[in-house]
């Protein structure tokens, strides 16, 4: 039984030193901390969440680990310009275990695409099923085909799928050529 491993996901997304990466709905910061190591001191990581307590936790952990390349931002990724970032400012955006809890997941897709550079990529990790209430309620599970459709409407194509553990699917999107 395996859960999502941030370091493996970042490898599958070809995240490199010096990039600007964004962690949508950063939560406890598992991806944020892994991103900070991966992009290095010349890269930048934005951790975006609506919950101040979680952002404070991320900021404190970043300070403890001496990750000076992390900036926490309070934002609503379901709102237009809700991340607070400018257009085409990110090399990579990660949306992990997030879309299933959103009221308007297609708006999250739009916001990710808006801040993405033309050569950038978006990684999506979400639940495959509810697993008898181990995961989200079955009504909240989003089939990956829906996500592919939402990204296609924004001019993006599925670049690849990756193994995101036993309970999740992993998808990487890039702009259509």
Q: Overview of this structure, please?
A:
This protein has 177 residues and is an alpha/beta fold. It has a single domain, classed as Rossmann fold (3-Layer(aba) Sandwich). The chain is built from five helices and seven strands; from the N terminus they run αβαβαββαβαββ. A seven-stranded mixed sheet has the order 3-2-1-4-5-7-6. The longest helix has 13 residues. The chain is globular, with a radius of gyration of 15 Å.
In short:
The protein has 177 residues and is of the alpha/beta class. It is 29% helix and 29% strand.
Write the layout of secondary structure elements.
Elements: H1 6-12, E1 20-24, H2 30-39, E2 44-49, H3 52-64, E3 70-74, E4 90-96, H4 105-115, E5 116-127, H5 144-153, E6 156-163, E7 168-175
Parallel strand pairs: 1-2, 1-4, 2-3, 4-5
Antiparallel strand pairs: 5-7, 6-7
In oligomeric terms, what are we looking at? single chain
CATH architecture: 3-Layer(aba) Sandwich
Q: Number of helical segments?
A: 5
Instruction: State the distance separating the first and last CA atoms.
Output: 37 Å
- Report on the biggest sheet: 7 strands, mixed
Low-confidence runs of at least 5 consecutive residues = none
How many distinct folded domains? 1
Strand content is 25-35%
Structural descriptors:
177 residues; Rossmann fold; seven-stranded mixed β-sheet; 29% helix
